[in-house]
Design brief:
Layout lengths: L1 E4 L2 E7 H7 L8 E3 L7 H6 L5 H13 L5 H11 L6 E5 L2 E5 L9 H16 L6 E6 L3 H10 L5 E8 L5 H8 L5 E6 L3 H12 L2 H6 L1 E4 L5 H7 L1 H9 L7 E6 L4 H11 L7 E5 L4 H8 L23 H7 L4 H7 E5 L2 H15 L5 H16 L4 E6 L7 H8 L7 H4 L8 E4 L3 H9 L1
Parallel strand pairs: 5-13, 6-7, 6-9, 7-8, 8-14, 10-11, 10-13, 11-12
Antiparallel strand pairs: 1-2, 1-3, 4-5
Length: 431
Amino acid sequence: MLLYSTRNAGQFVDLKEAVLNSLPKDKGLYMPNRITPLPESFFRGLPNMTFPELAKTVTTHLLSEAVDPSYINEIIEQAVNFDAPIVSLKEDLHILELFHGPTLAFKDFGARFMAGLMGHFVRNEDRELTILVATSGDTGGAVANGFHHTPGVNVVILYPKGKVSKLQEKQLTTLGGNIQALEVDGTFDDCQRMVKTAFLDEDLQQRRALSSANSINIARLIPQSFYYFRAWQQLKQPGTHTSFCVPSGNFGNLTAGLLAQKLGLPCGPFIAATNSNDIVPTFLKTGSYDPRPSVATISNAMDVGNPSNWARILDLFGENWGQIRAHIKGFAYSDEQTREAIKEVYQQFDYQIDPHGAVGYLAAQAFQAQQPNSEVVILETAHPAKFPDTVEAETGKAVCIPEALAKLADLEGSKISISRQFEDLKTYLMD
């Protein structure tokens, strides 16, 4: 498997270099040089596959030239040992629950897969790898859990001060060991900028072996494609009119869906559901892409003002606005509308949905009003227990707190506070 930069399609690197370095030096993002559709026999046999079996088949199809198949089996056994079940609200509207992993968020799939793959690549290296992660909510917790105690790997997580929930912060700050949390006095976009700048700093590159576990790393997108196949597998009559509604911030999750589509999954168009950070829906309407500082919302994992993975989506469609609009429909909603949606889903379907899923519900409804015969699967990206105050206020019912979160309540976290200036991060890493 060879990969190229979205800024230079003529130069290629192997999978190990792309995964361990995360970003090309030209500031682009890595993309596979070819994506060959899975054979028809895969889709005929899909209904009878277990989730790990389909994940192994997809991974082997993509990576068999780069990773020994026996090690692929080991990675999948560690990464895909929990399900992603479908819950049907009605005949043509479904919820794909992606929160059954150890940190109750969809990013568990990507983080655990990446930890296994990186562990494989660094096992014979002569220096430790430092993973830099910017998080607006769930990424940090999933990465911290996935890489905890991984030999040869240290993890540094940057998160915006006061802009993640208390439970999310506990997931970042209570593990210790090879996990360090940095509280940044700024926004998620500041955190993301600092991480990207670190990869391009020559002093740091000489001093530290750096990589990223954000969705800028191609190793995050491959496993996130798995659950699109798992969802399609569970539908009674899946077809080309099945659309996935993706609550979107950095757009890695939606990019993974497009990867699944490129691999032959019959679905689409995709629905990009955003909060007030509506850069992509605005682009889809006007053709003008204007990044801006993110604003804080109750669906905080989507508070991104300049989505990194948009470069990959542009690359997939050759920056053709018409093609992008044909494959992706965009909708954006306010906090007030999100709160109303949480209430509506509970009253109509007796289902407690988290704020990100609620934004997805609103977008799915809008899409089905335009496309009456469509079937939509909403990606519920996090457990509502991670946002208990918001969910309980709108539903009038206490959220059941899973043990994985409940045990964090009495733990003391450890964090280091820094400014949003890159030099602060550089000083910490150099020391």
